[in-house]
C-alpha cells in the first residue's frame, strides 16, 4: 500500500533489508528473514525479531524507497503487509511497475534532484488521497456515485480531504420566499449546501458546533421543512425525498459533533463515534438502532448490537406465537413485540444452557429452542438466516461460558487488630457487608404498619405468585401489560428487592461479577477524596426520619455502597441525590444488590445524569418541556415560560420523586421506574401537571406555581399509610405554603400512576431517544453560552476592549481550537490539554481550561489579528513564536483566552509606551533565544510578574547587540505597505543612529573605568520598573559589548513624530475581527488547496 513519505537513513537499513530491484530514484527491498529459501543466520535473527514484536511494531516484508542519487537519505513510499505475503508481493510489484512506467521517465526532466523528490512525494500523497476516497466510497451502497459526489464536495467547498463526507440529499434551501434547488452535504464536522441555478451560485458551510437548534416546521409555502438555527441566523430546507431520514441524520451528526467537541470528557460516547473518520451513514443507522435497543431493554452501555431479525416467540400465557423482532448483543437475547411494550423478553446468555435448531415444518418454519438454567425453554420461529444466527449465538455462548467459569466466592471481613472495643465495633460496622435488606431489621418500627397493610401485602404477594406461574420468574419472564398493572399497584415489600434486581437486570451483573463489590469496598475504605468528603457530609441527610438511618448499621452500609461506587466510577464519583437513591435501595435489597442497582441506575437507566454538569437530567428537562407543549397545550398556552415548571421537575428526575413524595408513595414510583425506565417519570410528571393544570394556569408567579405542585405531591398517599409522613424537602416547602392557594384533595399514588399510563402510556422509548438527541444540542449550546459569558466576565475587568469586540474575539479563539480538532491535530500541546482536563488542573479554573491554543493555533490567530503588517511571513512567524512564549508563563505550551485577550488589549487599547514595552520584551529572554528554531530554550527565571500578560514586567534589562539588531529588524518589517512608509524608514534610521550613539557612549564610559557610575545610572533609569538592572545579563556584558535599556529606546523613539503617530494611530479592531472571521477558515484551508493543486498538476510548470 502507498504510505505518506517517511524519511529513513539508508546506511543503517542495509543490514536488515535486501535490495531486490533498483534504479536511479527507487529501490524495492525485502526484509531479511522473509521469503528466503534457506535459513541463513541473519535472516533467522531478523525474522525472529519481527515475530516477537507487538503487532503495532512489526515491520512489513516489502517496501519501496524513494532516493536521491548520492545521498544516504531515503523515503519509504510504499510497503506490503505482513499477514498476506503472496498477495502483498503482487501489490508491491504493482506499485513498482506504476512508478517505473508513470514517473521514472518524467523525473529525468528535473535539473534539481530535490525538485524531483518533491514531485514524487506529491504524487504519492495524491495516490493516498485517491485510495481514501475509494475506501470511503466502497463503504456506501453505490460506490461510483458516491465517489462522484465526494469529488464535487471537495471541489465546491475546498475542505481538507480528512473532512469525511457522510451522506448527501437533494433539497431546496429557502431564502425568503424563493427556493433554491441544490444539494445538502453532511460531513463529520459541517453541513454544506450548494446550488447553481440560472447562472447564480449559492453555497455556504455551517459547522455543527454552531448549530443551536433543529426543528421540523410547516408554513404556507413549505409543506414541511427542516429549520437549522445558529447563533447568527436560521436556514430552512425542504423538498427532501425522505425528510424523516434526513432530519434524523442531521440530528445525529450535530449531536455527535457537539458531544465530541464541547464535552468529550463529560458525556458517554460510543467508541466508534469517537473516531469520526469511521462514521458512515450505515454506522449512524446502526448506532441509532443500538441506542434504541440499549434504552428499551436497559442494557449495559458497552453492549454491541450484532443481529436484528424478525421472528415470532411462543408465549405460553397467550397460547400463541407473538410476532416481533429479535435483537442479539454481546451478552443478551432480546425480543420485543411489534407494538412496543406489549411483550418484552430478555434472556442473558449467562442463563442459557443451549441454543438448538429444530426440524422445520409448515406450522413451525425455521424454529430454534433456547434452553435456560431454570429448566425452561423458549421457542422462536420464522427466523431468516437461521443457521448463521445459531452459529453466531453458540460461538458467543461458548466464549461467555469460558470467560465466566465459576470461581469460589467468599464473604470477607476485616480483622482490625485494635484493642479498643469501640474502634473494633466501628470497623466491623464499616466493613462487614450486610446480607439482608435493612427493611428486614427495621420493618417493625416503620410508622403506619397495621393489620390492614399486612393483609394488603399478602394479597399482592398472591397476585405476584400467580403471575410468576403464568409468565415466569426471573430476568427472562415475559413482561406484558399485566405486569404493568401489578407494578402500578405497588410491589409487595417481600418481593421488592428481587423484582428490582430482575426488572433492571442488575442480577445478571451481580452473578457475572462475584466478589467485585467486596473488593471495591476493601479498596475504597480508608481513602480520602473530594467524593468521600461529600459522602460523609450527606450520610445523615439520607432519609433521616427512617429508623434504618438513625442507626450506625444503616449509615455504615450507605457509606460502603457510595464509596465503593465512587471508587468504581471516578468519572462520576459522587453526586447529590445519589445518597437518597442508595438509601432506598438498601432498605429493600441486600447491600451487594443495592450496589449493583445503583450501578444500573447511574450507568444504564439514567445515562449522563450524574456527570460533572448533570447534562442528562437537563436534557430530559428540555424534553419534558416539549412534551408539555405537545400533550398539555392548554397549560403551555397559559404558562408560556415553561422553564419554571422544568426547574421544579428537575428534582423529580434526579431523585425519582423520592425527595418530593411521601416515602411509601415515592417507593411505588421507583417500582415503575425499574419496570419502564425514564418513561415512567415522564408519564407521572405529565399526570401531576395535568391534575393541577387549572391551578397552575391561574397562578400569578413562579412561587405560587411551586407551592401548588408541592402541596399536591405532599398529599399523594398510598395504601400502606393513609396519612403518610412528608419527605423532608416536601415538609419544608409545605410549611410555608400560601393560604390563598386552592386546596387540592388527597390523591392515591396507585390512581395517579394508573392515570399516567392511561393518558400518556403511548409515549415510546423510540420517541424519547429521538427527542433526547435533538434536545441535547440545545442543552450543550446553552452550557456553551454560559461558559462564554463567564469567561468574558472574568476577562472584561482586565482589558479595555469593548464587550462586543471581546465576545467576537472569544468566538475566533474557540473556532481556532475547533478547526484543529476537526482535521486531526495530534500535536503534543493538544495531548497536554487533554491531560490537563483528565487530571483536573487545579491551578486553573474551569473557564480558563475550557479552550486553550497551542503554538500553531496561536500563530494562525496572530496572523489574523496582529494590527501591524509584517515585512515577510518568516519574520511574522518569528514574532508570533516569541509572543506565544511570552504569554505561556507556566510553560505548558498552551495559551488561555485571558492571556490572549490581554495581549490583544495591549496592541489595540494601551498607550504608546506599553506597546513599545511589549515590543521590547519580545527581543529579550525568555521570548528571544539563541536558536529561534528551538522554543524550548525560551524559558528564563529572571523575569516574573503578577500581571497575567506580563506587560508590566520589569523592563530595565539591557539589550545585547544581537537583541538590538532583532529589535530594529522588527521595526523595519512593521512599516511595509504603510502610506507613510518612506518617512517611517527615515525616522527609524535616525532613531537607530541615536541609540547607537547612546550605546557607544555608555560602552566608552564602562571601558574607561566608570563601571559603578554606569550601574547607578542604569538603576536610576529603571527605578520606575522596580528592578535592579544588574540582574540582567546586559549589566554583566563583556567589555567588547555595549548595551541600551528600554528607557533609552523609548526616549529615542519619542524624538520622531512619525513614529509616535504610527504607534498612537488607532486601529479599527472591529474591522480586523470582521476580516478575520472571513479569512479564518480560508487561511487554514489555503495550504490544503495548494496541496490539492500540487497533487493534481504536479510542479512541472516550474520547469517549462
List keywords for this structure.
eight-stranded antiparallel β-sheet, seven-stranded antiparallel β-sheet, 1104 residues, globular, alpha+beta, Rab-GAP-TBC_dom, EF_hand_dom, 42 helices, disordered C terminus
* Helix/strand structural class: alpha+beta
Distance between the termini: 32 Å
Q: What portion of residues belong to β-strands?
A: 5-15%
- What are the low-pLDDT stretches, counting only 5+ consecutive residues below 50? 50-58, 82-88, 406-419, 444-449, 722-739, 825-843, 933-957, 1010-1039, 1090-1104
* Rg estimate, integer Å: 36 Å
Oligomer: single chain
Q: Determine the mean pLDDT.
A: 78
Portion of residues within helices: 40-55%
Tally of helical segments = 42
Biggest β-sheet: strands ordered side by side in the sheet: 17-18-19-13-14-15-16-20
- Largest sheet properties: 8 strands, antiparallel
Estimate the global geometry from the Cα principal axes: globular
The overall strand count is 24
Walkthrough of the structure:
This protein is an alpha+beta fold and 1104 residues long. The chain is built from 42 helices and 24 strands. Strands 17-18-19-13-14-15-16-20 form an 8-stranded antiparallel β-sheet. A 7-stranded antiparallel β-sheet has the order 9-8-7-6-12-11-10, sandwiched between helices. The protein starts with a strand and ends in a 7-residue tail after the last helix. The C terminus is likely disordered. Residues 717-741, 1002-1033 are annotated as: Disordered.
Amino acid at each position: 500500500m502507498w504510505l505518506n513519505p517517511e524519511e529513513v537513513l539508508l546506511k543503517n537499513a542495509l543490514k536488515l533489508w535486501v535490495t531486490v530491484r533498483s534504479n536511479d530514484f527507487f529501490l524495492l527491498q525485502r526484509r531479511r528473514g522473509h521469503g528466503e529459501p534457506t535459513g541463513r543466520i541473519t535472516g533467522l535473527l531478523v525474522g525472529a525479531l519481527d515475530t516477537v514484536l507487538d503487532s503495532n511494531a512489526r515491520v512489513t516484508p516489502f517496501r519501496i524507497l524513494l532516493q536521491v542519487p548520492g545521498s544516504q537519505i531515503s523515503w519509504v513510499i510504499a510497503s506490503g503487509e505482513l499477514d498476506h505475503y503472496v498477495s502483498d508481493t503482487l501489490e508491491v510489484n504493482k506499485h513498482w511497475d506504476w512508478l517505473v512506467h508513470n514517473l521514472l521517465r518524467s523525473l529525468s526532466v528535473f535539473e534539481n534532484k530535490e525538485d524531483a523528490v518533491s514531485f514524487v512525494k506529491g504524487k504519492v500523497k495524491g495516490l493516498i488521497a485517491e485510495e481514501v476516497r475509494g475506501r470511503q466510497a466502497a463503504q456506501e451502497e453505490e460506490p461510483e456515485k458516491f465517489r462522484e459526489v465526494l469529488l464535487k464536495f471537495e471541489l465546491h467547498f475546498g475542505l481538507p480531504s480528512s473532512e469525511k463526507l457522510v451522506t448527501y440529499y437533494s433539497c431546496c434551501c429557502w431564502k425568503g420566499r424563493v427556493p433554491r434547488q441544490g444539494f445538502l452535504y453532511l460531513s463529520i464536522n459541517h453541513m454544506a449546501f450548494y446550488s447553481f441555478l440560472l447562472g447564480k451560485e449559492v453555497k455556504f458551510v455551517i459547522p455543527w458546533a454552531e448549530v443551536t437548534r433543529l426543528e421540523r416546521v410547516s408554513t404556507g409555502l413549505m409543506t414541511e421543512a427542516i429549520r437549522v438555527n445558529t447563533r447568527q441566523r436560521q436556514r430552512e430546507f425542504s423538498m427532501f425525498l425522505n425528510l424523516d431520514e434526513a432530519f434524523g441524520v442531521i440530528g445525529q451528526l450535530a449531536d455527535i459533533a457537539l458531544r465530541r467537541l464541547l464535552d468529550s470528557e463529560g458525556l458517554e460516547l460510543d467508541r466508534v463515534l469517537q473516531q469520526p473518520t469511521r462514521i458512515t451513514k450505515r454506522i449512524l443507522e446502526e448506532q441509532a438502532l443500538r441506542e434504541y435497543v440499549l434504552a428499551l431493554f436497559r442494557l449495559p452501555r458497552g453492549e454491541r448490537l450484532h443481529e436484528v431479525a424478525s421472528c415470532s416467540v411462543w408465549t405460553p400465557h397467550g397460547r400463541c406465537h407473538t410476532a416481533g423482532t429479535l435483537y442479539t448483543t454481546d451478552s443478551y437475547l432480546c425480543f420485543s413485540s411489534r407494538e412496543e411494550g406489549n411483550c418484552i423478553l430478555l434472556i442473558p446468555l449467562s442463563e442459557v444452557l443451549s441454543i438448538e435448531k429444530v426440524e422445520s415444518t409448515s406450522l413451525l418454519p425455521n424454529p430454534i429452542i433456547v434452553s435456560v438454567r431454570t429448566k425452561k425453554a423458549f421457542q422462536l420461529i420464522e427466523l431468516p438466516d437461521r443457521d448463521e444466527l445459531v452459529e453466531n449465538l453458540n460461538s458467543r455462548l461458548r466464549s461467555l461460558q469460558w470467560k465466566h467459569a465459576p470461581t469460589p466466592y467468599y464473604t470477607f471481613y476485616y480483622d482490625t487488630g485494635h484493642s479498643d472495643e469501640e474502634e473494633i465495633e466501628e470497623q466491623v460496622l464499616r466493613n462487614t457487608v450486610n446480607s439482608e435488606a435493612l427493611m428486614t431489621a427495621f420493618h417493625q418500627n416503620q410508622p403506619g404498619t397495621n393489620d390492614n397493610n399486612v393483609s394488603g401485602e399478602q394479597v399482592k404477594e398472591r397476585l405476584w405468585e400467580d403471575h410468576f406461574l403464568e409468565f415466569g420468574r426471573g430476568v427472562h419472564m415475559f413482561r406484558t401489560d399485566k405486569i404493568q398493572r401489578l407494578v402500578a399497584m405497588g410491589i409487595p415489600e417481600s418481593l421488592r428487592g428481587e423484582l428490582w434486581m430482575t426488572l433492571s437486570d442488575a442480577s445478571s451483573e451481580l452473578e457475572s461479577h462475584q466478589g467485585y463489590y467486596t473488593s471495591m469496598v476493601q479498596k475504597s475504605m480508608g481513602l480520602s477524596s473530594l467524593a468521600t468528603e461529600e459522602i460523609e457530609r450527606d450520610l445523615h441527610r439520607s432519609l433521616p426520619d427512617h429508623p434504618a438511618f438513625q442507626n450506625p448499621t444503616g449509615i455504615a452500609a450507605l457509606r460502603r455502597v457510595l464509596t465503593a461506587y465512587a471508587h468504581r466510577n471516578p468519572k462520576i464519583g459522587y453526586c447529590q441525590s445519589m445518597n437518597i437513591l442508595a438509601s432506598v435501595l438498601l432498605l429493600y435489597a441486600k447491600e451487594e444488590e443495592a450496589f449493583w442497582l445503583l450501578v444500573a441506575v447511574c450507568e444504564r437507566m439514567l445515562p449522563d445524569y450524574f456527570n460533572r454538569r448533570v447534562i442528562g437530567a437537563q436534557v430530559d428537562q428540555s424534553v419534558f418541556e416539549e412534551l408539555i407543549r405537545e400533550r398539555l397545550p392548554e397549560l403551555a398556552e397559559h404558562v408560556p415560560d415553561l422553564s419554571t415548571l422544568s426547574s421544579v421537575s428537575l428534582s423529580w428526575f434526579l431523585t425519582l420523586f423520592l425527595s418530593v413524595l411521601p416515602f411509601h408513595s415515592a417507593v411505588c414510583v421507583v417500582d415503575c421506574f425499574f419496570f419502564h425506565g425514564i418513561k415512567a417519570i415522564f408519564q407521572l410528571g405529565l399526570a401531576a401537571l395535568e391534575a393541577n393544570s387549572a391551578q397552575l394556569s391561574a397562578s400569578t408567579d413562579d412561587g405560587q406555581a411551586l407551592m401548588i405542585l408541592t402541596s399536591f405531591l405532599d398529599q399523594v398517599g398510598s395504601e400502606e399509610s393513609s396519612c403518610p409522613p412528608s419527605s423532608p424537602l416536601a415538609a419544608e416547602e409545605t410549611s410555608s405554603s400560601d393560604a390563598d392557594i386552592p386546596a387540592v384533595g388527597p390523591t392515591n399514588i396507585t390512581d395517579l400512576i394508573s392515570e399516567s399510563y392511561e393518558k400518556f402510556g403511548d409515549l415510546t422509548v423510540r420517541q424519547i431517544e429521538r427527542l433526547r438527541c435533538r434536545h441535547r444540542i440545545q442543552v450543550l449550546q446553552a452550557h456553551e453560552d454560559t461558559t462564554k459569558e463567564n469567561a468574558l466576565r472574568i476577562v472584561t475587568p482586565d482589558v479595555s476592549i469593548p464587550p462586543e469586540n471581546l465576545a467576537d474575539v472569544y468566538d475566533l479563539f474557540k473556532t481556532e481550537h475547533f478547526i484543529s480538532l476537526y482535521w486531526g491535530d495530534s500535536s503534543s500541546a493538544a495531548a497536554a490539554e487533554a491531560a490537563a482536563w483528565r487530571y483536573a488542573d487545579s491551578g486553573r479554573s474551569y473557564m480558563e481550561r475550557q479552550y486553550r491554543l497551542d503554538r500553531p493555533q496561536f500563530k494562525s490567530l496572530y496572523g489574523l489579528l496582529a494590527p501591524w503588517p509584517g515585512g515577510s511571513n518568516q519574520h511574522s512567524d518569528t514574532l508570533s513564536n516569541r509572543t506565544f512564549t511570552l504569554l505561556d508563563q507556566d510553560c505548558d505550551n498552551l495559551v488561555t483566552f485571558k492571556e490572549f485577550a490581554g495581549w490583544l488589549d495591549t496592541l489595540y487599547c494601551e498607550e504608546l509606551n506599553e506597546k513599545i514595552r511589549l515590543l521590547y520584551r519580545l527581543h529579550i529572554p525568555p521570548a528571544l533565544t539563541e536558536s529561534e528554531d528551538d522554543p524550548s530554550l525560551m524559558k528564563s527565571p529572571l523575569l516574573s510578574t503578577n500581571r497575567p500578560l506580563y506587560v508590566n514586567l520589569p523592563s530595565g534589562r539591557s539589550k545585547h547587540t544581537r537583541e538590538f539588531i532583532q529589535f530594529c529588524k522588527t521595526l523595519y518589517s512593521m512599516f511595509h505597505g504603510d502610506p507613510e512608509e518612506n518617512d517611517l524608514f527615515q525616522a527609524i534610521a535616525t532613531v537607530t543612529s541615536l541609540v547607537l550613539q547612546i550605546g557607544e557612549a555608555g560602552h566608552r564610559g564602562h571601558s574607561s573605568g566608570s563601571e559603578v557610575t554606569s550601574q547607578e545610572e542604569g538603576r536610576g533609569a529603571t527605578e520606575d520598573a522596580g528592578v535592579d538592572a544588574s540582574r540582567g545579563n546586559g549589566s554583566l556584558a563583556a567589555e567588547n559589548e555595549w548595551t541600551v535599556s528600554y528607557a533609552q529606546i523609548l526616549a529615542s523613539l519619542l524624538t520622531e513624530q512619525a513614529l509616535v503617530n504610527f504607534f498612537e494611530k488607532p486601529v479599527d479592531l472591529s474591522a480586523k475581527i470582521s476580516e478575520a472571521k472571513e479569512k479564518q477558515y480560508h487561511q487554514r484551508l489555503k495550504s490544503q488547496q495548494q496541496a490539492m493543486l500540487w497533487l493534481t498538476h504536479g510542479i512541472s510548470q516550474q520547469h517549462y
